[in-house]
């Protein structure tokens, strides 16, 4: 039974040794342990605060990034719209210029056609006049081959001029 129930002397020495160990631990061990626990607690608290700040900064950076992406998309859309508008204006200007050139060419072509028409009519009149003179000359030669016919013809022409002057 000696192991289960300790004797008084053993109990006394156990309490004394326990007190000495407790005193040594309280004097030298517990302050070191508590300061280490306190430092660890402070480190964890500081780390948590830094993590929260980092998370807040990351969220702010993410929001800033989203805004920048949205602005870039808006600028891209504006640039595309401006490019479309510029292309549309360039096409309209080219069409207008082509229409003006076509109208100018048409006016010039009409003027050229009219000029050639006048020249052709003038040539035709010259040819007809030449033919008329030639035909008249042949007819007059045949009809005015003698002197009496020539005198009658001259009197007839003079008579026609007199009638024209009196009217």
Q: What's the end-to-end separation, in Å? A: 183 Å
| Number of E strands | 0
Percentage of residues in DSSP E strands: under 5%
Q: Judging from the principal axes of the Cα atoms, what is the shape?
A: rod-shaped
Gyration radius from CA atoms, angstroms: 65 Å
The string of secondary-structure elements, in order, is HH
> What does the average pLDDT come to?
88
The stretches of 5 or more residues where confidence is low (pLDDT under 50) are none
Which class of secondary structure composition applies to the elements?
Answer: mainly alpha
Compute the number of helices: 2
| Helix content range | over 70%
Report the oligomer: single chain
Largest sheet features: none
Structure characteristics:
167 residues; mainly alpha; 2 helices; 93% helix
Short synopsis of the structure:
The protein is mainly α and 167 residues long. 93% of the residues lie in helices and 0% in strands.
